[in-house]
Amino acid sequence: MIIEVCGPGCPRCRATEKNVLQVLKELEMELGDEAQVIEIKDIKQISARGVIMTPAVIIDGVKICEGRIPSPQEVRKWIGDSR
What we know:
Number of domains: 1
Radius of gyration: 12 Å
């Protein structure tokens, strides 16, 4: 599973990445090495993924969230749904 956090590094983008990493740490025993987080900061790469507003979360190529900070509960659900 590849989780991309898209954003230029603003506070909202960092908060989004923090929530994603927090959930992955909580699920570490379950997921093992199954999940990888990639931070995408380059505007051209972000645009190429169809993102208009940051922060955005993309899981395995599917845009899940855009323009807001997702809660850890939301991230946990998305990861569960993507497995």
